[in-house]
Amino acid sequence: MQHVKIPQDRIGVLIGEGGETMREIEAKAEVRLDIDSENGSVAVDTVGDPVLGLKAPDIVRAIGRGFPPEAALQLLEDEMMMFDLVDINAAARNKNDLKRKKGRLIGEGGRTRELMEELTGAEVVIYGSTLGTIGTPQQVDIVRTAAEMLLDGAPHGTVYSFLEDKHNEMKHKGMEYHRFPGSQS
């Protein structure tokens, strides 16, 4: 059994309308969730496949960090899918600095966050003092690097170029990988 703590305002999302989301997570991840809505503590107990059960705490954590349940459940779709958090607070000196750094990650009208999603194919959510990512290890790594570049003060243009380069690299590798048998190089 594992315990995960999530913010009070995300408990309703985890439970879902009439307990629907909670039941869906329990069924798909083969776990039992015991949610304490007073303090935000969630006990995750594996009742079925232990490998699926290992993903359940990350699903709960992802919902707790602002992801919609559908996005968090993607962690079960592929064993390569992973959840990662970047602590913005660790890079900030004070509350004003935290706000500024969070603003840099979000970008004007949410454009920077959107570009991170579009160019990597990962899901990206900024909630509280964290940037959460759900994707393959490569996608998560690219988003983390881009976020760290922005937190270190890199110009947005530099980060966008980095993201575009990585996007093209992934696209090129994908084309190489999916070449049909018998084709000539």
What tags apply to this protein structure?
globular; RNA-processing protein; 3-stranded antiparallel β-sheet; Ribosomal Protein S8, Chain: A, domain 1; 185 residues; RNA-binding; 2 domains; KH_domain_protein_archaea; alpha+beta; KH_dom; RNA binding; 9 helices
List the helices and strands and how they pair.
Elements: E1 2-5, H1 11-15, H2 20-29, E2 31-36, E3 41-46, H3 50-64, H4 69-72, E4 82-87, H5 88-91, H6 95-106, H7 111-120, E5 123-127, E6 130-135, H8 137-151, H9 156-177
Antiparallel strand pairs: 1-3, 2-3, 4-6, 5-6
Helix pairs in contact: 2-3, 7-9, 8-9
Explain how this protein is built.
This protein has 185 residues and is α+β, with helices and mostly antiparallel strands. It folds into two domains: 2-69, Ribosomal Protein S8, Chain: A, domain 1 (2-Layer Sandwich), CATH 3.30.1370.10; 82-178, 2-Layer Sandwich (Ribosomal Protein S8, Chain: A, domain 1), CATH 3.30.1370. It is 52% helix and 18% strand. The protein has nine helices and six strands; from the N terminus they run E-H-H-E-E-H-H-E-H-H-H-E-E-H-H. The strands form two sheets. The protein has a three-stranded antiparallel beta sheet with strand order 1-3-2. A three-stranded antiparallel beta sheet has the order 4-6-5, with helices on both faces. Helix 2 (20-29) packs antiparallel against helix 3, helix 7 (111-120) runs parallel beside helix 9 and helix 8 runs antiparallel to helix 9 (156-177). The longest helix is centred in the last third of the chain and has 22 residues, at 156-177. The N and C termini lie far apart (52 Å). The mean pLDDT is 92.
